[in-house]
């Protein structure tokens, strides 16, 4: 089994990097959790985007180093938004991740040992659309 991971400080382009899962880590990894990955000769954290059954061809696949937190740091909609922004505006994916998960936030989570991570359910409430502005395909509709 393989993982697609968004690195925090270095990326080649707009796509997540692929890593393999070492023995014993299979049940602890979920999309949105934070892992430590080797990038070039250094280690940095990364956010798991999802799982992949087969590895890309003609690539050397490295193992993740360790799991930093088994709780999801980012929600699935945030991960999807990171991928979409990166692809649409051709911004390196690690830079878009920095908008959602800054170094200051990561340092605070590290300081508190990642205990502040709480899964929040999306709110489902009825919106009052009587006096609202909705943006649709670059035009404003009232």
List the helices and strands and how they pair.
Blueprint: E1 2-7, E2 17-20, E3 34-39, E4 42-52, E5 66-69, H1 76-89, H2 93-100, H3 103-111, E6 134-136, E7 139-141
Helix pairs in contact: 1-2
In words, what does this structure look like?
- The structure is a single chain.
- This protein has 142 residues and is α+β, with helices and mostly antiparallel strands.
- The chain is built from three helices and seven strands; from the N terminus they run E-E-E-E-E-H-H-H-E-E.
- Strand 3 and strand 4 form a beta hairpin.
- Helix content is 22%, strand content 26%.
- The mean pLDDT is 84.
- The chain has a five-stranded antiparallel beta sheet with strand order 2-1-4-3-5. Strands 6-7 form a two-stranded antiparallel sheet.
- The protein has one domain: 3-Layer(aba) Sandwich (GIY-YIG endonuclease), CATH 3.40.1440.
Name the features:
142 residues, alpha+beta, GIY-YIG endonuclease, two-stranded antiparallel ribbon, 7 strands, 22% helix
Give the structure's gist in a few sentences.
This protein is α+β, with helices and mostly antiparallel strands and 142 residues long.
SSE arrangement, N to C? EEEEEHHHEE
Count of distinct strands: 7
> Poorly predicted ranges (pLDDT <50, ≥5 residues)?
none
Please report the distance between the alpha carbons of the first and last residues: 48 Å
In total, the number of domains comes to: 1
Quick one: biggest sheet?
5 strands, antiparallel
Secondary structure: helix percent: 10-25%
CATH architecture annotation: 3-Layer(aba) Sandwich
CATH superfamily: PriA, 3(prime) DNA-binding domain
Q: Which percent band covers the strand fraction?
A: 25-35%
